[in-house]
Amino acid sequence: MQGRLSLVPFRGLRFDRAKVGDPAAVISPPYDMIDPIQAHRLALSGTHNVVRLTLPELDEPDPRLKYRRAARTLREWREEGALVLDPLPALYVYEQTGPAGHQRGLIGALELPADDAGPVLPHEDVVDGVVADRQALMHATGANPEPILLTYEGGGPASDLVEQYAGGCEPLVEAATADGTHHRLWSITDPRELAVIARDLAPRRSLIADGHHRYAAYQRLAALGRPGSDRGLALLVDSKRHALRVRGIHRWIPDLPVAAAIAAAAEFFTVTPVSGGYRAALDELDRIGPERVAMAAVDRQRAWIIADPKPELVAESIPGDRPESWRLLDATVLHLALARTVWKVPDTADHIRFDHDARNAVIEAQRHHGLAVLLRPVAEATVLDLAAAGVRMPRKSTAFAPKPATGLVLRLLDAD
What we know:
Oligomer: single chain
CATH superfamily of the largest domain: Conserved hypothetical protein from pyrococcus furiosus pfu- 392566-001, ParB domain
Protein name: DUF1015 domain-containing protein
InterPro entries: UCP033563
Pfam families: DUF1015
Organism: Actinocrinis puniceicyclus
Distance between the termini: 28 Å
Number of helices: 15
Structural class: alpha+beta
Largest sheet: 9 strands, mixed
């Protein structure tokens, strides 16, 4: 039986503008959306940029000490008054408007369900090392520094309150970031309004759109029994009011001889050269119907469409006890059939790397003497169907957008 979906009010830990100045100088994208150059630029943009918490290796290169450094940074910021706890527990209305889209939702402390059959549905596999990293960071700091992103089919009173606050109330925080996105935050503390939200959300279920590794880290922390770890920071967005966009996440494989890889792929797939580099390859992928398996391989300015695997390859390399929609996902075929079986590349995070930006994937592949593989977005209906069936897609199969900024509100485990 499905448990209840519960987003609990909490005392938010927020930056004090009187101490830190422009809020845009202290917020950042999610930790896994930042490349090293951007991370250092954000760290230099302000002494209190939250990236120093989410990526503590910027200030402490010794991996044995980086979590301790994050804890010290958080403690120092609180002691100097840069981060201050709000006086009352609240749910926070968050709005972002910019190039990635427009959305509004509720930030709160998500009650963690007992299992994945409940009201929170994961849909992707995770990498153990990344989960362990996020768990260690949250354990050391005693905090959830950034929210995961959940989407649900709403249209009820909770969504009405979100629109009401965003439409006519003075925000707690406003920030305009360099990417052209405008962020605003409000707090809901009225017990009657909070009760309305709780009743509306209780029978619903949600999909993890972004933050599978952080969610898995929440679960591991909860298993340790630390006070306050039975909840995790989350942004909940009503997809009926604010539909998220789904994008593909690209791969690059280091140290893969390109000519041999393309020749090997041609034995089991239809391989078609494309003129015009990665942009032309992406355009060509867009023209291929969703009923076909297809991906693009790119080496500098050379590109190929790799499509339509032979049935015997699929039967040999991909488990037959999964739904057909999972077995013929582009990412499934890439990881299990093309990479592991044809190219003999292990399906690990070290051997298959990820990048949300196609151009960056091509550049990294070139730098590391390998090949970029560009993927199409997965239809949201497919994501929902597989999640409801309890079937996990390959890691990094989807990129929902827009993603919430980090640093507008943090949560201390022991301060709810």
